[in-house]
């Protein structure tokens, strides 16, 4: 995958999401996101960290969280959400939209996955529709399925994914799940909300594990 293209995609998605955030009202920021235990405010704070996290900071966070990656990420987001209000976080997010920096150990496609998925984490609970561009979403989905970080291999073992809005499918299982690529990306990253847009015998199976 061409690095400059990925950077261009990521910048466009960040700026588009920043425009959405501009329209949110005060109560929207305290709305629970699709990430269990995280508010919209927490998720936006987390998004600003992807270009600001350093290796020493990450190591320190892991020590604090006793090796629990998810706890480390949550704690860092909550601290930043406490330090900065919505307008400040939006400005920070927009300022670094074109940044080439990414969190330690992350791959070039991870920031794109981050903004595509977290964009849905924010928009869907607020009843907002945020379309996911086809080519970018398929690239993100391919990356998630190949990466050991997201746990998709275990989660989707025996399931065949088929996109209904693109010429794309993956997996060899008999339990097929059909739906828009954006919903398949949510399922691959462990979000039960993706089940609302899919069908097939594999959907029931995923519903028991998500």
From TrEMBL:
SUPFAM superfamilies: DinB/YfiT-like putative metalloenzymes. Keywords: Isomerase. Residues 16-118 form the Mycothiol-dependent maleylpyruvate isomerase metal-binding domain. One of its GO terms (molecular function) is isomerase activity. It holds the Pfam family MDMPI_N. It comes from the Bacteria. Transmembrane segments: none annotated. NCBIfam families: maleylpyruvate isomerase family mycothiol-dependent enzyme. This is Maleylpyruvate isomerase family mycothiol-dependent enzyme. It comes from Streptomyces phaeochromogenes.
């Amino acid at each position: 995958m061409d690095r400059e293209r990925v950077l261009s995609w990521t910048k466009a998605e960040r700026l588009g999401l920043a425009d959405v955030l501009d329209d949110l009202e005060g109560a929207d920021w305290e709305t629970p996101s699709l990430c269990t235990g995280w508010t919209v405010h927490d998720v936006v704070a987390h998004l600003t960290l992807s270009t600001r996290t350093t290796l020493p900071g990450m190591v320190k966070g892991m020590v604090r969280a006793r090796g629990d990656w998810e706890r480390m990420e949550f704690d860092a987001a909550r601290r930043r959400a406490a330090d900065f209000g919505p307008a400040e976080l939006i400005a920070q997010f927009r300022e670094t939209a074109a940044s080439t920096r990414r969190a330690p150990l992350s791959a070039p496609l991870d920031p794109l996955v981050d903004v595509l998925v977290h964009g849905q984490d924010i928009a869907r609970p607020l009843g907002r529709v945020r379309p996911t561009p086809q080519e970018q979403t398929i690239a993100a989905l391919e990356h998630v399925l190949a990466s050991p970080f997201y746990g998709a291999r275990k989660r989707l073992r025996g399931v065949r994914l088929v996109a209904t809005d693109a010429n794309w499918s993956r997996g060899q299982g008999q339990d097929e799940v059909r739906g828009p690529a954006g919903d398949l990306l949510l399922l691959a990253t462990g979000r039960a909300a993706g089940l609302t847009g899919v069908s097939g015998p594999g959907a029931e199976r995923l519903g028991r594990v998500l």
